[in-house]
Amino acid sequence: MKSRHTAGPARTWQLKAAAPQETIAALAEALNNLPEPLARTLCVRGITTFEAARAWFRAGPADLHSPWLMQDMDVAVDRLQQAIDRNERIVVYGDYDVDGTTATTLLVRYLRDVGNKAAYFVPTRFEHGYGLSKKGIDEAVAEGADLIVALDCGVTAIAEAEYIGSLGIDLIVCDHHTTLDVLPHAVAVLNPKRTDCAYPFKDLCAVGLAFKLVAAMEERQKRRRGDVLEFLDLVALGTAADVVSVTDENRILLREGLVRLRQGARVGLRMLAEEAGLRLSSCTASQIIFSIGPRINAAGRVGNAERAVALMLAVDEVEGSARARQLERLNDERRELDREAQTTAFEAADRLLARGHRHTLVLHNEDWHMGVIGIVASRLVERHFRPTVMMTTVNGMAKGSARSVAGINIYQALEACSDMLTEFGGHDFAAGVTLPIDRVDEFAQRFEAAVTGAITADVLTPVVEMDAELPVSMIDQKLWKTLRQFAPYGPDNEMPVFLARDLVVTGPISTVGKDRSHLRFAVRDAGGGHKRNVIGFKLAKHLDIVTESQATGAPLEMLYAVQENTWNGRTSLQLEAKDIRLGEQL
To answer: Omega into 387 within 30° of 0, i.e. cis?
Structure first.
């Protein structure tokens, strides 16, 4: 039987580095004879002692760092307190992604709760672009402002900060992005990445910084609001969606915030979850990324992100429901634009690659919507495993998003072409770029040369990493009870992936999903044990392998994660396949 799904490039399976075996064994023994595969999974995360494991599993809000350790926190709090006491006009200037809108919501809600009539402004992707801009500043202060608080932007806005000062307006910057050699002229710049900032954790996102600011404010406030931990649902939402490191404080904030989010106290988010068909009471970080996050982002991708802030500020179900329906409609529109762009981009990429081997993809189409090209560029990278630049036309210029693969720094590749770029910026794996349309072909050649010069042999092969070898027969409810405590997951604490060898395929094999791209079957260890159901998302391309294993008795090897699956009110453990191959027959 031949699968109609292409297999794509073979992927290398690689065991993550961990502590020596004696350290793993000692940790397993110290943790009440924890199964060694789980002990190894802890060691992969740098947790090698009983004390470190206890702190990792049990850390809570009391273990968060003091906000006063952050450079300029005292100055920022003093200036905000002064604005509240004097009833000054505060304008919160946010960003249009989930991190920016949750941070804006958090600070505005707090300021209003303590008596200030704070306003907010979120720039649009198309009219203002990212961050502080002269046009955005003018609109933000049109009705008067004494103080601007920039969230998730501003740390590199040197000229814009000077412009704000020239208007006689004070500025506080709360930004987590990498700083320049100089800081913007502002009353305070809250950013743990400042070289002179001794704050012990550097990877807070903007909503985490906003939370730290209000926590410090609450300590200083004469009229206290109450429990600032109520804001952790917003912190969890922004932290998960911004894909920051889920370690140290972020792990605590995300875990505790998920607890708050599941309680459904914030009416707008509760209504949004209903529109999405999401059971909020069991929401995970992954569901934030793939369900709630895209709906909030849709407001900024195809409209105005202030609609997302208004949703999260809603205080009654009538308003919350209306705004949730609005975001759902915008998300439907975003999906349609997404589908159209993906179809034409995939076709264009196939035509380009058919002309000859290339290490990169550079595509331009004036009909693509600016709000979705970053998403589609990421899918092109997944499909072809090549650094990709996808651009549309904005104000007569080619403008778009660049995405990369592990081992290729996309920012450095763009820097090598900087003489022909009107604008570019970003980091290792993602960047934005603008250039004249008549130079797109020349840029494609230069970009190809820059990436080709940086490629090494190991970069060309996709790698799937695993935490430990775990036979399927070892999986039971006791192991699952411990394994589920590894969550919440995200960068630097990804869902553990295990290796199982000598598997026997049992029961029917089928492809499922609207496009039949998912693979469903069941396995057990060759030596016996319980049968476990398997779902392999986007793995229908391996149908032939699983079918051959069942037909010939050839052992199957699988990389997988353990999950709970609820169907018709019944919950059971299932395995999510990450990759599949035939094992060697002895």
So the answer is: no
The CATH number for 12-20+464-582, chosen from 3.10.450.50, 1.10.4100.10, 3.40.50.1380, 2.40.50.460, is 2.40.50.460
Q: What is the token pair recorded at 94?
A: 């946010």
Average pLDDT value for residue range 294-317: 94
What does pTM read for this prediction? 0.89
| Closest C-alpha to 199, from 310, 364, 65, 85 | 65
Token output for 97: 């992604």
DSSP state of 425: E
**pLDDT tens-digit map of 172-190:** 999 998 888 999 999 999 9
Is 280:300 a contact under the CB 8 Å cutoff? no
- Per-residue model confidence as pLDDT tens digits over 491-504: 899 999 999 999 99
What is the strand order of the sheet 397-403 is part of? 361-364, 388-394, 397-403, 430-436, 423-426
Residue 442: half-sphere exposure toward Cβ, Cα within 13 Å: 11
As a whole number of angstroms, the distance between CA 512 and CA 519 comes to 6
Amino acid at 450: A
Give SS3 for 458: helix
Rg (CA), the chain: 25
- Secondary structure in 3-state letters for 90-126: EEEECCCCHHHHHHHHHHHHHHHHCCCCCEEECCCCC
